[in-house]
Amino acid sequence: MLRDIGASSIDDLFAIIPEEYRVKGDLAIPRQMGESEIVDHFKAAAAKNANGYASFLGAGVYRHYRPVIIDTIVQRGEFLTSYTPYQAEITQGTLQAIFEFQTMICELTGMDIANASMYDGSTAAPEAVMMAMRVTGRDGVVVARTVHPEYREVMHTYAQHREVSSGVAAVEVGYGPDGSPHAGRVDLAALEAAVTDETACVLVQSPNFFGVIEDVAAIAEIAHKKGALLVVAVAEAVSLGIVRPPVEADVVIMEAQSFGVAPSFGGPFCGVIAAKEKYVRQMPGRLVGQTTDKQGRRGFVLTLSTREQHIRREKATSNICTNQALVALMATVFMTVYGKEGIKELALHNLAKADYAAKTLGAHGTLLFGRSPRFNEFVLQTEEAPEWMNARLLEQKIIGGVALKRWYPELGNATLWCATELTTREQIDAAAGWWRRLRRLLWCGRKEISPQRTRRAQRTLEWAQEDRKME
Amino acid sequence: MTAETEKFVGTTRKVTAHLTQNEGLSFEKSAPGKKAYRLAELDVPAVDAASLLGDLAREDTGTLPELSEIEIIRHFTRLSTWNYAIDLGMYPLGSCTMKYNPRVNEFVSRLEGIAEAHPYQPEELSQGSLGILRLLQKCLLEITGMEAITLQPAAGAHGEFTGILLARAYHQAKGNPRKDVIIPDSAHGTNPATAAICGYEVINFKSNARGGIDVEALAAAVNEETAALMLTNPSTIGVFENEIHKIADILHAKGALLYMDGANMNALCGKTRPGDFGVDVMHLNLHKTFSTPHGGGGPGSGPVACKKILEPFLPVPVVEEGKDGMLHLNYDRPQTVGRVRAFYGNFGMFVRALAYILANGPDGLRQTTEDAVLNANYIRKKLEDLYELPYTTPSMHEVVFSDRRQLRNGVRTGDIAKRLIDYGFHPYTVSFPLIVPGALMIEPTESESREELDLFVDAMRQIAREVEENPEVVLEAPHSTRVSRLDETTAARKPVLRWRSRQ
Ligand SMILES: Cc1ncc(COP(=O)(O)O)c(C=O)c1O
């Protein structure tokens, strides 16, 4: 081939790179491995992660059963190794699947239109906010503190350098304390006070980060009264099977990981933006539309691309190009497998498991925001530090709830627990049993746990474990 | 009636034609009561949604389809047959690096301990995942010659956003975020779109006669308000900026930064390192250079590597090795630009990219680059007599022709692309970069054998002849696909973006 080209050596082809910048020897990376060595390498890594634990983690990433055919389908090379469907005649498979995805997302969220996917739920948040700014010509944002803390962080990252008339890029609104009418939900009075004529949108999440379902209708009224848009985030997509969709919203952003996508240490997931029809020209990302070919046959194409960066460049609605298409396909297959009835039944199982878990675990601690409606997550308050409790539970191969104080210092020792259809009664009972035992051991004085007392408790615990073995 | 005389004569066709070529939408095939799922038996007391949720309970889940499992498998399998894919043949989309996606990568990313890892599980139970992050970071730093890195961005454009935010934070820390980002007219659309989102004014910079940066013009354009130059190297016409060090010097003299769009790293891995030739910050596309599958448009992954001066601003968290030898996530970084994505990025893509790097090693990566460049130059040589080469500068991993000669017969790059489909190839990239009117941007990658390249060359040569002798056949192409050219105008004018039931 070199001869065909008229080059004497491969180095001729790199002659344009100045000599001093050429890599002389080998890069210092691991040597070439055989396939079996690669598999061994990753098996060893996998073994260093949690294996065989009962997990009560949720908080934006959910463990749901993933029907086997999802993987069968996405492993087809025709889907896996295809590019963005710019050449519609030979990518009708991807295009039609995305069209089905867009339709099902609309059906579930109660919106008119949905795009072909965003990177994830967290990045969909600032994209929706920027969309609202373009629609309203305003630049203020009001965000509920019950929105996933990492979604809010991402939103602040996008907003921090924007020049905002009020000087504050985003105002955060708190939630009602335990026992109040809006316990664990957006504080409506505070919201009303925060929304002004400068507000482009109000961003809330439902079910929110505490698992509590927000009063979307009431929030919408407050936002709309001031001419602001309402953006509702859905981080747990399965909730849409049983929770009334946020139809009062103008824009819905969603994380579709729950629809058949592995937790995979946080990604790849599947963000979505859905909206009312009138906002279609301000939508970010790709859209698939139906059309016909020259013979009048139905076909699908990427459309309305004058919104996008490859046409509009610096005036585009977003800089997004590559999205999460294959993951959207996984979600499409998931929604097709469960279908109209299955998604409801699945959501109902989640509701039942979480209700049982909340009651069972809540019997040995305080269930925060207990009277507010919730889906598959709940908050437990304890007098003991969650680090200590969780460390002891780990010894029993149980991963307890996420400690909330990192994001909500006012909640002290509270932890966020999740139960899905995959959580078994046995796991819940075991966790509750240990939880009770641990708390009993620590309850000697109901005061701050001193290091001495902790050590003593630990010793007692060890005895208790011995007891259990004897039983 | 006698059996002998009235023999049944079969037909090779079914009574009704089979639907494979006419697969409807899943909704159209739906029938009430069909199921493809069965949940595990509920082992806790059943609940009543209405009593738990009150008026927040949902009654109707809309028109999701109801199908059986085999119908679903057939539905998607049939749809899949309408796609072209790398697994079917050469996919020479310029700038997209459509290389083979090794299946061992898919296998290891699905290992239980890896796929099931929850991002909030305790650090001591995430050492395997953190180790993967850490090793991939080390490898990418070595490959790029940079000093610090984040894997958080989800794709190339998201990496650009992160990189420009780092530049902004750097300037801000010096008291002035500056106003402008200079972007050559050959750049990908995501570059200007990114600069705008980061609050910068885009200064469009004209490429010179070689398709590169005119160093003198650049020196005149850069000033104290220039935050950065966003440069794709090799450029989108596949040419290495050989005066890159001068470009870097000009920027640095005014305190500006050199951002490199690393979409074309497949031309550089193991041969030269951006960190060595003056780049301050860059992104990589793991879904291009490092073989993670494009999946019909994503997911991708767009790590951002930078020099020490930008390290304090990296998104949180960063992976660090503790004194105890354990890996930790550090969130305590006062100068960070913040998070650009929840959790730690498209982790599943890190696994695949690392598997690719391990499969190659230093010699393999170098060989890959050499083969990619060799293949592009081979195509260039074999086609340059028939297709106009607007820039004769040496090509790296891709070659850009223009349709100027074919235009004389009324045939444009888009038509040639469609005709290529009839020959069994995916088209090259059409009409990009914008500095080449009627561009044909061809990137074969290292994955293609000489036999496949020859077939492609034959097809391109045959099409050139058709353009001369029978342009209609090209203008009407493709002829072999399930649908012919689609009406994009109506699609945009009267958008139908979802299916609706007829009632
Ligand atoms: C040169 C160049 N820059 C940037 C991008 C954007 O990358 P991504 O699609 O991963 O966002 C692309 C990809 O199409 C590209 O080719």
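The longest strand of chain B covers residues 226-232.
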